[in-house]
């Protein structure tokens, strides 16, 4: 009699145990289902990240500028906050290099080290004759497809006066604004050292006349070519 | 008629666009399909053939003998496909003998400057390369051609020789 009772008890326990397991399984599957829902929420995040990557690569990018070679335009105070600059990538992605004009500030990969990215001002385009500051030749005719870049701060600038004209294919962005710190939010205007550049015959010098000069960079000379 | 029958379709379409965006971003930074024009890399690659390039190799991992695509230094809107014949610091020995330099370039070699490479097409007589526009800054090189996939009978991998241990 007692054994029967125990057998029945054991049987009931097994059934209950099995039933609990089945319930657990169904809970597990529902949990997994909602976990599946969570993993499918990754896709919008990933898509958003990819869209940001695309915009950064093809349209607009932000970059932190270090160094003092573009003083006083960018990073005017070496000890304080460094500037963040907004770059326009459309001249490169649309292959419309005519948007890069004399006086614009550009970022480019250094011809000396492809991992270095520099930011300088375009002084001369192809066909221009530039009077250099410290280059091996006093006068340089910029070859086709190249440009002459200089930093606004001539004292500490690693630019075309050191490595010569650079190919326009090295350019990776056109700096349009300073966006940070917020107090220095401004549009980066074109500036041009009128006394040191003779443009190619295809460009009208009159068009450049309105541009302000680059400080410290004009030549005080009596003889003009 | 089912209520909101278009919902599964719309959701699938949105998911498809999301997958497409992710795949595009990854493929865009990993490599690309190439269509070759011009005779400058014959007999390795002929005109109107299709190849694959990869953009994963970092600048310091390019080797001599790699077929690469680069922007032309004097014409930045044109992409050229040439072979690396010299890395920075290496001596290029091109004889000044006009027979060897039949394309009439004015750069005869020398030591490749820092951050530059020397590019030459395989078809020496009709290739406009470093012999014409000088050593090319490495940053103009955008990718390495690692395979040719069309025409199908001539499908090849462009293998790299093992890196010399200097």
UniProtKB/TrEMBL annotation, chain A:
Pfam families per the UniProt record, alphabetical: Peptidase_S26
A GO molecular-function descriptor: serine-type endopeptidase activity
Membrane topology: Single-pass membrane protein
Major place of residence: mitochondrion
Domain of life: Eukaryota
One term under GO cellular component: mitochondrial inner membrane peptidase complex
Entry protein name: Mitochondrial inner membrane protease subunit
Species per Swiss-Prot/TrEMBL record: Phallusia mammillata
Gene name tied to this protein: Immp1l-001
From TrEMBL, chain B:
Location in or out of the cell: Mitochondrion inner membrane
Gene3D superfamilies: Umud Fragment, subunit A
Keywords: Hydrolase, Membrane, Mitochondrion, Mitochondrion inner membrane, Protease, Transmembrane, Transmembrane helix
Domain of life: Eukaryota
Sequence ranges assigned to domain Peptidase S26 in this UniProt record: 26-96, 107-148
GO terms under biological process: protein processing involved in protein targeting to mitochondrion; signal peptide processing
One GO CC annotation: mitochondrial inner membrane peptidase complex
Record carries keyword Transmembrane: yes
Residue intervals passing through the bilayer: 12-37
Pfam family, one: Peptidase_S26
GO molecular function, one term: serine-type endopeptidase activity
Residue numbers annotated as active site: 40, 82
Description of how the protein assembles with itself and partners: Heterodimer of 2 subunits, IMMPL1 and IMMPL2.
Record-stated family: Belongs to the peptidase S26 family. IMP1 subfamily.
This protein's name: Mitochondrial inner membrane protease subunit 1-like
Species this chain originates from: Phallusia mammillata
